[in-house]
Amino acid sequence: MTTQIKNSFLFFMFTLSLCLNSFFLMDTGAQVDNEPVDTLTTNYTFETIEVPGVDFLALTASNDFEDYAGYTKSEDGEKEVAFTLIDGVFKTYDFPSSQKTHFYALGNDGRAAGHYQDSDGLYHGVILENGQLRQYDFPNAVQTEVFGISDATGALTGNFIDAAGVRRGFSGDLIIEFPGATATYADFVNASGVMVGSYIDADGGYNGYVRTPDNNFIRLFSGVSNEYVFVHGLTDSGISVAREKEVHNVPRTYVGSLQSRQSAELSFPGSISTEGWNINQDHSVVGHYDSADGRRHGFIARLASRDMSEPSDIGTASTFNVTLTKGLNMISVPLAPSEPMTVRTLAKLTAATTVITLDTAKQQFIAWTPSAPDDGFPIEGGKGYIVNVPHPRNFAFVGGPWTDQTEDAAAAPAAVSTEAWAFVVSGHLKGKPAFDGYQVMVQNLRTDSIITTSVQGDYFAAATADLSLRSVVQVGDVIELRVIGPNGNMESQPLSFKVTPEHLANAVLSVRLDDIGQPNQNLLLQNYPNPFNPETWIPYQLSKDSFVSVSIYNTTGQLVRTLSLGFQSAGFYNSPERAAYWDGRNSLGERVASGIYFYTLTTSDFTATRRMLILK
Question: How far apart are CA 236 and CA 213, in angstroms?
Answer without folding.
Answer: 13
